[in-house]
Amino acid sequence: MRTRSFIVAVALLVSGIPIGPGITARPSRTPVPVPQQGAAAQAPIALPNKKGSLKFMIFGDFGDASPEQVATAAQMAKTRATFPFEIAVTTGDNLLGSERPQDFQKKFETPYKPLLDAGVTFYATLGNHDAQEQRYYKLFNMNGKLYYSFKAPQQDVRFFMLESTYMDPDQVKWIENELKTSTEAWKIVVMHHPPYSSGATHGSSLSLRATLEPMFVKYGVSVVLTGHDHIYERVKPQQGITYFVIGSGGELRRGDLTKTALTDVGFDTDNAFVVAEIINHTMYFNAISRLAKIVDSGIITARTAPK
Amino acid sequence: MFLARSFRMAAVGAVVLTSGLACATKTKEQLEKSSVSMAPEVAAEFKKRVEAYADSSRKLAATLPKLPKEATPQQIDQDQRAFEQLVVQERRDAKPGDLFIPEMQTYVRTLLADVFAGPLGAAERKAVHDESHPVAPVINKRYPDEVPLSTMPPRLLANLPTLPDQLEYRFVYNDLILMDDHAHVILDFIVDAMPRAPIPASRP
Which of B70, B74, B152 is closest, CB to CB, to A166? Predict the structure, then answer.
């Protein structure tokens, strides 16, 4: 069965479906306009925050020990106080610059101590600034692998964590086989380089897109989470797949978002991270700035592989 | 170890002949697989050399204490740097061309000229150069910790000879390096392996 994939953003709030405490929405069958670049949702969608759902957080390009990283990490901890996500996935560039033992402390363990102490499990991907030894670092839960997949602790979800700086034939074969054989309703790919991005510094990685997108489409990937450009962007669905660039967890490239036809919502005036919740075939998400502003929100429906 | 002159000429000839076909209109599959092919003798020699290195490297690694399953950053760092020292010591007489033999260098340059041609090739070149690499490769030296690794286009990796685990191809600007990713040591390199970008006709 082919599930129609669509994003219904903020305007759902004027509908009739209860989607959060005190918020109701009326059913909508068609995509509706979403906030423009840099603009917060007029009335952001509240996350349902339901028992038994998968609650997770996504961030990337963070490990620089800057005041911005520390402040954004603090906002993550504040968010978790009301939305208790249990896992966090990184889109890479986990440690920028030096990677001596003390750097793991000041660029990861100290800023995210409240989350680590609360039992949040981190799953990392590697970016082009990351040494491959990070795969042995127990708090990144990579189990010595440069690329791996894991089943989420709640709901029917599998994350596919890729090493996008070195997409050799072995990895291409591996991801194709993993996607083909996985049976989860949600297939979420996480990697550093964005197949679609409106970032001026890097932009879309066309060669990765050419290699990976056909299998994402064929095997029913719903969401692709990336970083590399130090901005936040949600790209208009491409062949039914929603691509995010979540790369402003540390150093921000203010003004780097060059809005293109790809851009659904973008934000480049402050740091940001994303919290999301999956309940059955629906994913709710909020992109949150360092200063606690919800800069994007919406709903994504799981897609299945075309028959 | 040197290859016979006639073998070299045959190998270079094979590369040149096959690369001539690259100009034809390409199907999607051909876009992924370059028409530039390597002479079997060159492929075999390169494979023999990198596997000999990998074998030696595995033996060196086996002399170090095994990392615990839940290693600390200190233990990971110590292991990595100890291994680097072993590799550097073992290869103290290494010189350019030990692994990238001249025939392999010719093949790689021809292959890269083909792969990086055309609009997709231009985009891939841009992706390789999307971070600054202000270093010059030196045999048996550590790849600088603070310089990001180049992103390798999947289409290029699909065309270069497969390497043993732990070895990688990367770029330092236009130079292709062969690197031990555990030791962080540059094993060999090809200067200007990637052709320089064509100069626009309008440029004075």
Answer: B152
Domain range list for chain B: 8-22+31-190
Q: Does the beta carbon of A22 lie under 8 angstroms from any beta carbon of chain B?
A: no
Query: B123, A211: Cβ pair inside 8 Å?
Result: no
Nearest to A211 among B73, B130, B154 (CB): B154
Sequential pLDDT tens for chain A (307 residues): 333 444 443 333 333 223 333 222 322 333 333 433 334 445 788 899 999 999 999 999 999 999 999 999 999 999 999 999 999 999 999 999 889 999 999 999 999 999 999 999 999 999 999 999 999 999 999 999 999 999 999 999 999 999 999 999 999 999 999 999 999 999 999 999 999 999 999 999 999 999 999 999 999 999 999 999 999 999 999 999 999 999 999 999 999 999 899 999 999 999 999 999 999 999 999 999 999 999 999 999 999 766 5
Quick check: B73 contacting A, CB < 8 Å? Answer: yes
ipTM at complex level? 0.83
Q: Which CATH number fits domain A47-294: 3.40.50.11810, 3.60.21.10, 3.30.420.40, 3.40.30.10?
A: 3.60.21.10
Residues of A with CB below 8 A from B168's CB? 166
B53: closest CA of chain A, how far (Å): 20
Cα distance between residue A14 and residue B121, in whole Å: 48
Supply the pTM of this predicted model.
0.86
A131 touches chain B (CB under 8 A): yes
Q: What's the gap between Cα A270 and its chain centre?
A: 17
On chain B, the residues whose CB falls within 8 A of the CB of A104 are 73
| Burial A159-168, CB ≥16 within 10 A → b, else e | bbbbbbbbbb
Contact of B126 with B26, CB cutoff 8 Å = no
Gap between the Cα atoms of B45 and B168, Å rounded: 18
